[in-house]
Amino acid sequence: MNHQTEAIHIHRISNGRKEWVPDMLAIEEPLEIQLQYSSDTGKMKKSIAVTMRTPGNDEELAAGFLFTEGIISGHGDIEKINRHSTDQNKILVTLVENIKPRLQQAARNFYTTSSCGVCGKASIEAVQVNIPQRIKKELRVTGTMLYALPNLLREHQEAFEHTGGIHASALFDVAGNLISLREDVGRHNALDKLAGSCLLKNTLPLDQHLLLLSGRASFELIQKAAVAGIQVVAAVGAPSSLAVDMAKEHDITLVGFLKPGRFNVYNGIERIITESGVG
Questions:
Q1: For the CA atoms of 106, 109, 113, 119, what is the dihedral angle to 10 degrees?
Q2: Which of 62-71, 116-125, 252-261 has the lowest average pLDDT?
Q3: Per the domain annotation, does 182 fall within a domain?
Q4: Do 145 and 113 share a structural domain?
Q5: What backbone phi and psi angles, to 5 degrees, belong to 38?
Q6: Which of 1, 14, 16, 240 has the fewest CB neighbours in a 10 Å radius?
Q7: Is the same domain home to 170 and 83?
Q8: Beta bridge pairs of residue 111
Q9: DSSP states of the chain as a string?
Q10: Comparing C-alpha atoms, which of 140, 159, 272 is closest to residue 214?
Q11: Would you place residue 279 in the very low, low, confident or very high pLDDT band (cuts 50, 70, 90)?
Q12: Could you tell me the residue range of the domain that residue 180 belongs to?
């Protein structure tokens, strides 16, 4: 149907009856992210990671990955992004002259699966990213607005609608208007694509926006949100214990099990206005 899905036929068994029916799969392919930068001995070119992703928005994915992993500082570090001339699964990010990437904090064993954004890390220290210290602007969201977000997300999840096997990260303003949405077979890739789109538009930090995750809230997603300056993260699923710790450490309002009419608040309830008031 498109570059995110693939049409196949399958056997479907229902009440003991076998049918040969069409089905749709979410595409999963490797993307090699390469980096070119200045060094004391001249231009260096290095493969940073291979991540399993759903094709599409690859330039955003590469930019967002480099930013949320702490390898680059922001929009001004990137000179250009080019796809390989013969291999669509390789992408090269060239940094501005004399910009030095922080590769020591993103040491990887080179390969990252679609299900885990930190599985390729080479050390415990490499899991942690230096998160910029920012003066936080005041932000409030209403419980009524939060209730409406899951249905809004589902309405715009085109690839999920066809496959049921893809994650989404969506950015909303405080009024509940959808600003941007990205989908991927990897939840961390979906967020990197979203962050990368904002990075390339030079609209970071996202301190007046809310992030909605279509599944659970894991540690690496909250960390990536913190790097992007997001103050409110809501997830349709559950947060992990490390995600809650990360939210507390970086003063992020974290909402889980969000559905129409109810949600849990794991940190930062003072940013949420309910029928009974603030917090």
A1: -70
A2: 116-125
A3: yes
A4: no
A5: -80, 145
A6: 16
A7: no
A8: 50
A9: -BTTEEEEEEEEEETTEEEEEEEEEE--EEEEEEEEEEETTEEEEEEEEEEEE-SS-HHHHHHHHHHHTTSS-SGGGEEEEEE-SS-TTEEEEEEPTTPPP-GGGG-B-SEE-TT-SSTTBSSHHHH--PPPP-PPPP--EEHHHHHHHHHHHHHH-HHHHHHS--EEEEEEETT--EEEEEEESSHHHHHHHHHHHHHHTT----TTEEEEESS-B-HHHHHHHHHTT--EEEESSPBPHHHHHHHHHTT-EEEEEEETTEEEEEE-GGGEEETTEE-
A10: 159
A11: low
A12: 141-278
Condensed to tens digits (0 to 9), the pLDDT of residues 204-220 reads 999 999 999 999 999 99
Domain boundary among 96, 127, 158: 127
Residues 189 and 224 in one domain: yes
- Which positions are annotated as active-site residues? 116
Same domain for 240 and 191: yes
Last residue of a domain, one of 74, 97, 127: 127
Which tokens belong to 130? 């230096």
